[in-house]
Design brief:
The chain is built from 12 helices and 20 strands. Helix content is about 30%, strand content about 25%. Beta-D-galactopyranose binds next to loops.
């Protein structure tokens, strides 16, 4: 064979090899994204139970998921938040609190899996969690291996006691550890939005918190001193909603803005406020993590949380986060693009009295003359054919949620 022919062959094989590496990497990336093609749905212990978690609670929640239609409505992950761990053994393995979890995390995971559900856990990138239990700092690979061995499907990873660690680097470290551990684990970045995770989280986690913690109230907040500055934390859902404006472009299949877990059914939120909170989280394509004690709730709250037509807006496969298209002070219109050119619209009345709110087609990207069908998603009723606009009376602190079908 001539020298030029040999060189030609080497170049050819090198190119094939490079292409194969590229395809393998692309595939790995796709598989990672596939873990959260639509926003994750589930339940998390924190909003109601704080550090008081135990295995009976988790088992009962898993039972209720199946018996009371949550699984059927699409909720899948049951996540224990902070407070499940106690210490590390001599080899550095993380240990669950034996008083709270006498049967061990593995048995609990098996139980949740036996119900056809997935199980999640919580840790922290610092040396301690926010509840001051052992964090994963320095144990990232060991913890990831442990989670994989237990059969964990979801990790919420917090950002307390992190000093001057770098958030992008440390979240990537845990992401790499999870990938190395070889089990598909949804990775939830939870650092309160303080390091603009929407800018770097896309290839690191499947969802990232955009704000400090949510509270079960309309617009409350508490001032805290953060890095020497006074900031508003512990926010009511309308305050969190306001902080989502402008983040829309960062979300999409495989990676989501997370405006925090649901407070529907908690605190003193009224029925209209609960409906508004749920509707708006669905318009935002937010992860839907229930945060209430679903073992014992009023039927009206159960109805909100399991309304499949509203949930379908959140889970729409196009994966577009909705936007605020009109804001007249207290009267707002939010719109989410759906597959097939449809739109979901929420008319949101923040004022203290019931008021009319209108949405016009140009405001949601349709030509004014377009004839559309409209369906009310809370009333589960077809409203008929409309052109140019739709107007409705919206209760105080409430919403009208419609689907518009051209
Ligand atoms: C906070 C986090 C909460 C909860 C809590 C646990 O940082 O935002 O959702 O996980 O820590 O201590």
């Amino acid at each position: 064979m001539k020298k030029s022919q040999i060189n030609h062959n080497i170049t050819y094989y090198l190119l094939v090899l490079l292409f194969a590496i590229f395809v393998i990497q692309l595939k790995a990336q796709n598989n990672w994204d596939d873990l959260a093609k639509v926003p994750p749905m589930g339940w998390n212990s924190w909003n109601t139970f704080k550090l008081n978690v135990n295995e009976n609670l988790i088992r009962e929640i898993a039972d209720v998921f199946v018996e009371q239609g949550y699984k059927d409505a699409g909720y899948e992950f049951i996540v224990i938040d902070d407070g499940w761990q106690i210490s590390r053994d001599k080899e550095g393995n993380i240990i669950e609190n034996p008083k709270k979890f006498p049967s061990g995390i593995k048995a609990l995971t098996d139980y949740v899996h036996s119900k056809g559900l997935k199980f999640g856990i919580y840790s922290d990138a610092g040396y301690k969690t926010c509840g001051e239990f052992p964090g994963s700092r320095g144990y990232e690979y060991q913890d990831a291996r442990q989670y994989a061995a237990w059969g964990i499907d979801y990790l919420k990873y917090d950002w307390c006691f992190t000093g001057n660690q770098s958030a992008p680097d440390d979240y990537k470290l845990m992401r790499d550890a999870l990938e190395k551990a070889g089990r598909p684990i949804v990775f939830s970045i939870c650092e309160g939005g303080i390091n603009q995770p929407w800018e770097w989280g896309r290839n690191i986690g499947h969802l990232w918190r955009t704000t400090f913690d949510i509270q079960p109230c309309w617009d409350c907040s508490r001032k805290i001193i953060f890095k020497g500055k006074e900031v508003e934390a512990f926010l009511g859902f309308t305050k969190i909603l306001d902080q989502q404006v402008g983040l829309e472009s960062y979300a999409g299949p495989g990676h989501w803005n997370d405006p925090d877990m649901l407070e529907v059914g908690n605190g003193d939120l009224t029925l209209d406020e609960n409906k508004a909170h749920f509707s708006l989280w669905c318009i935002l394509a937010a992860p839907l993590m229930l945060g209430n004690d679903i073992r014992n709730i009023p039927p009206k709250i159960h109805e909100i949380l399991t309304n499949k037509e509203v949930i379908a807006i959140d889970q729409d496969p196009l994966g577009k986060q909705g936007i605020k298209v009109k804001d007249n002070g207290n009267l707002e219109v939010w719109m989410k693009q759906l597959v097939d050119g449809n739109r979901a619209v929420v008319l949101f009345n923040r004022s203290d009295v019931s008021q009319k709110i209108a949405v016009t087609w140009p405001e949601i990207g349709y030509p004014a003359h377009l004839k559309v069908e409209i369906r009310d998603l809370w009333e589960k009723e077809d409203l008929g054919r409309f052109s140019s606009e739709y107007e409705a009376e919206v209760p105080s602190h409430g919403v009208i949620m419609i689907k518009i079908i051209p």
